[in-house]
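Hi F.,

I've been meaning to write this up properly since the lab meeting, where we talked about keeping a consistent format for the predictions we share between groups. The idea is simple: the sequence comes first, exactly as it goes in, then the structure tokens exactly as they come out, then a line or two of notes. No screenshots and no reformatting. I'm using this chain as the first example so we have something concrete to point to.
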Amino acid sequence: MLHLAAAVDQPSAYDAASYVGLARLAESGGFDFVTLHDTFARPGLDALAVLSRVVPATRRIGLVPTVTTTHTEPFHVQAAVATLDWLSQGRAGWRLDVSGTASEARLFGRPHPAALGLADAGEPPYPADALWQEAGEVADVAAKLWDSREDNPGKKKVPADRDTLHPVDFRGTTFSVKGPSPVPRPPQGHPVRVVDATDAAARRTAARYADVALVHAVSTAQTAAVRDQLRAQAAGFGRDPDELRVFAGLLVDLGDGEHAAEPGHGGGGPRQSARGPLYRGGPVDLAELIATWHAEGAVDGFHLTPAEPFRDLERLVNGTAALLQHRGLFRTFYPGGTLREHLGLARPANQYAVAGGVA
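Output, unedited:
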């Protein structure tokens, strides 16, 4: 089954109602999840806190904030994501991202490595490969911490005993964590982890730890090549490649309808722009593009960023998604209650309970 997700980014919005409105609109169209991007590079609201506010106004749609792994404390990050999963009753995700600029490092009082004699002044302060290696370690320790308290199916208010608490004793390249987590194991076991795998440096981390990988490309050939690479790497890490969903990422501008499609747009596909692959045209041609890419096996779904949030998301829901539903390619209702169920992903077993021989 085809999967759809939408960004609800609004850099200039500081009120809860606008984010709630977009999330509920996407939910009315059956979208798997919405994302809210966050970065240290610009002022704005905290994405995880905003989506926590969206929780009580929605019932089924997944909520996926960006939480950067660079400069942040993995123990606190995993606890915040686990809390979002509890508040939403299993609808949380986490889009991992990295921060590689010296200006962002200075926000945390950290000097350029050149000042410490660890790099040349002309080099990037934090190489992408190292940043994504650290992000992978954060994803790894997060899963261990989520599993550090075994499930309590009855949710009994009794203290956990030593047999159900597991210190993780994790030592990474740049941090260490003892555990266990103070937050009970999340409803999904592991909230859904999302990684943008467009850049080659991120693909190893995506293949090993992501449930959803995003790929920004302008053709099925490009997207399929990255998808094949990710699936092969996932298998190399001992994962079932079918447990990794690959979404094509597109910026969509539906403002002027079908007649606005330019060469390279509409039925011809997106074009590269300063903000990434851009589709400009109408919801009908976009539905055809989505159906074609999915039928060719290039992607499992699409992550769509509206150029104008309310206008374009409304046309995505009532135009593109409705056409795909009419053709039997996209859901007309949510089959389950959790984001993992929307994506067709199993709830992971607790690695410590399995190791200890507990079913």
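Notes:
The chain is about 35% helix and 15% strand.
Confidence is low (pLDDT under 50) at residues 114-119.

If this format works for you, I'll send the rest the same way.

G.
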